[in-house]
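Backbone Fold Data
Goal — fold tokens
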Amino acid sequence: MLIFEGKLKEDWRLIFDDKMIAPLQFNFNLKGKVQHEIEETGISYSLQPLVGSITSTPHGSKQCFLISGNEEIIFLSLFIDRKKYLPKIKNLINEMPAQLADLFTDTKGEKSFFYQGHYNLIIAESIKKIIDNDKMDLVKNIYIEARTLDILSEQIAYYEEELFAPSRKVNLSREDIEKLIHAKELLLADLKNPPTIEMLAKQVGLNQGKLKSGFKLMFRQPVNQFLIKERLECAALLLVEGDAVKEAASKVGYTNQGFFAKKFKEKYGVLPKDYLQTLQQRIPENN
């Protein structure tokens, strides 16, 4: 894993002269501008914020990351040694799309591969968590490994979706992404009386179609499912803090207690009235 966070006084070239078999790379730019060049293939492209790529270079390829100076950069690149990683997924190869199967089984680095596209905000959050991680020793390593697997699974899932439904690909500009982030913030700002899809679209300046498709792409769930999840998580916290069930339900926008109880049980496996007792049973008493 390579992480770059900071600001340089001038442009900087990070050059990899691969005399050994080149790894499979997953590249993610979170802030600033990064240029990636692969000499033998002629591939040269720019990674803008919230744009990522998957690359595989032929054995012995020389590649370079040009990191722009005079601006804040947050960039992460994951390197996968396919020879070591393949045994972990060998039972899944037959279930993969042919493009991915070929990519992961090319342990000798004989082929080139290039994919570029936006990545969702779940990946962005995982990258931030890795950077902000203040845990120590083994706990830190396990935490970073878990977040890394989150990143890989999300990016591979998005790539597969594009393979199987290219016509449904959503093209988002940087401005569109900022508007979607704002839409999320507006929903969270008032869980009791959130805006409707129509109102939300007008408030952030997107048409309803792009709002719905873009939101699902960036946050991996439709607007309504996102709202339900956030409401229930907030209600659970309110119950822990001492609110009565009726009060907690009202604060997050549920006027029908029966419906609230049904949704709550679907998520947590218990009724709201039993939630706090269930939590207390899970916490061992101090001897």
Remarks:
- The longest helix spans residues 137-164.
- The longest strand covers residues 72-80.
